[in-house]
Amino acid sequence: MIIPTREIAEPATVRLIPTAYHKPPVLRPLVDSAEEEAILAQVEGLTSRRLKAQRSGLKGLDARELLYRAWGYTHINAAFAYARPEGNRFNDGSRGAWYCSFDDLTSLHEVAFHRTRELQNVGRFEDECVYVALLAGFIGDFHDIGRFGAPAGDWLHPDPAIGYPAGQKLAQTLRENGSRGLLYPSVRRAGGQCLVAFEPSAVQNVRQGPKWKLEWRGAPDWSATAL
Fold it and tell me: Is the distance from CB of 20 to CB of 132 less than 8 angstroms?
């Protein structure tokens, strides 16, 4: 199988994360000194997959792949250390990946789809949440399944039960052959462009972007407001 590549230089791709994962250390108000904070941080580290990955690696993630001492490195490392048991479209449960898009609206559609599925599972479409954008740059050659001549497959099937197993198999093959990441058309927004990075070092110049509030008011339809 031959997947064509495309050279890109994108300075500001967009990844949205809940603000609960983007805030000052929550331990600080609980302690009176730096020494006490360090002790609590060690306790917290016992259950943190990111910290465990940085110390000794995980089953599908070598600690030497991770980044250190650059702004946003904790967000990058967390993206690869945490993975849902069933995985996502282009990663399985053993290793995460950095998913992003080329614009805010596409990222909003992507995260809103998954949030709507969660609300559907609990049977209540009443919710609001705030996301913060993490902007990141990418430069170099990336495989592209949206290019003319790319082979067809179920990788972009809208049903996760079909699309995810096919996408995970494709991603594994690409990674084994040295791929840094994959460009693909958004499944949730027509015309949107997405990128998944397979390795932490591909993610560059991470910095904070705008915040967005997503709301559901009794129906699967959602609205987004810039904050």
Answer: no
Specify the 3-state DSSP secondary structure of 162. helix
The predicted model gives 65-91 an average pLDDT of 86
User: Is the Cβ–Cβ distance between 57 and 51 less than 8 Å?
Assistant: no
End-to-end CA distance of the chain: 45
| Mean pLDDT (the chain, rounded) | 87
Domain ranges of the chain: 7-23+89-226
Q: Give the residue from 53, 99, 55 showing the smallest Cα distance to 78.
A: 53
Q: Is 216 left (phi over 0), alpha (psi -120 to 50) or beta?
A: beta
Cβ atoms of residues 135 and 13 within 8 Å? yes
Between CA 205 and CA 73 the distance in angstroms is 10
Q: Give the pLDDT of residue 73.
A: 86
Kindly report, residue by residue over 56-76, the tens digit of the pLDDT. 656 777 777 777 877 788 899
Output the six-digit token pair for 3.
Answer: 């997947």
Q: Are 104 and 186 contacting, i.e. CB atoms less than 8 angstroms apart?
A: no
pTM of the model: 0.84
Q: Give the pLDDT confidence of 141-160 residue by residue, as tens digits.
A: 999 999 887 888 999 999 99
Assess contact for 200 and 80: CB atoms under 8 A: yes
- H helix or E strand, kind and range, residue 83: none
What is the three-class DSSP state of 76?
helix
Q: What is the mean pLDDT of residues 19-41?
A: 54
